[in-house]
């Protein structure tokens, strides 16, 4: 595969963008062959700067729910763009969208709109504190809630005071949650939870209903707000808040990524229990009230309600999982596929430094399939059986090629450095 255009762009970027790229889409911690820049996207596919095509199991890290450039959503966005986007006040579509969300999401009595998932999670924290008059927020250890100083996983540039009011518990562990609530005493503002455990580098875990119900009870007992961070999983597990699947209704839920099928929009939904607090805080942004993403979201929600997009994603996820399981077995690899099949992660047994996972991802890429070696992936509703079968056929070749390279594989220096930094941080926390 020709990658010269990407290589040239990376070299140019290095001069005018710190490290050439930053954040979750930077490819520094991926195999060296992974392209950084993409020229275009359509349906389930992306094309890199050299014109190489890949079946994309990252879906832009979540926003592509129905597929890139979905014609129905794009038409709704274009119709709104012809009228106006960022204006001196919001468009009527803001009210339509809030009504649609409140009618679909059981716990929601109101909606507020913003741009990124981090805006929604930060706003949830502030609204919970405003509502309760309390300060402490409980987070599951290792859970990702965004890139603001209070939650970024890379604490460079962050001061201890930014996190002074945060406490941590073990996800899916009701006793650990109870202990953290006890420690917070009279000062507990909120408990945050992701809908399932989807931390990078680890096997995923579905929520234990005992833990989820206990989180609800503890909030009821203490007056704290229960916050479900549905930014990554929202509308990929249910047509409602993801914890509706375990019968638990939060007070606040955070949404982003898939809600407008790729248009920039994130959402905070809340129940009446937190309406006063949410109404008392000052939150805003120059682009938060733009009408085009809201029109795109309204159409995305219509498709969510009226189509079998969710069942299709599950069918395709199951098909991929079954195909990969038998291919891995044929080639003698222990492949762990965890979490919901429509949000898969694949990690290899006996691969602590990810050298096998990296080689396999490289071999998949070479065969036109973009998979991630340590982050959960996403099935798009537009993926077909033919797409999945192509991926499984590629996997067969990729397993064979990886097997042939086993003796010469080396760990990625970037991953080793990340692991060392993490270990140092944990040691520091113990001291
Ligand atoms: N919460 C969760 C669970 C997420 O997965 C993400 C993004 N990966 C965020 C919050 C932050 O979203 P954003 O990057 O849009 O700020």
Bound small-molecule species:
4'-deoxy-4'-aminopyridoxal-5'-phosphate
- Mean pLDDT, as a whole number? 97
Termini distance?
49 Å
Strand arrangement across the biggest beta sheet: 4-10-9-8-7-5-6
Q: What best-fitting shape do the alpha-carbon axes yield?
A: globular
What is the CATH T-level topology of the largest domain?
Aspartate Aminotransferase, domain 2
Enzyme class: isomerase
InterPro entries: Aminotrans_3, Aminotrans_3_PPA_site, PyrdxlP-dep_Trfase, PyrdxlP-dep_Trfase_major, PyrdxlP-dep_Trfase_small
GO molecular function, one term: glutamate-1-semialdehyde 2,1-aminomutase activity
Protein name: Glutamate-1-semialdehyde 2,1-aminomutase
Features:
12 helices; binds 4'-deoxy-4'-aminopyridoxal-5'-phosphate; 2 domains; seven-stranded mixed β-sheet; 431 residues; alpha/beta; Aspartate Aminotransferase, domain 1; single chain; Aminotrans_3
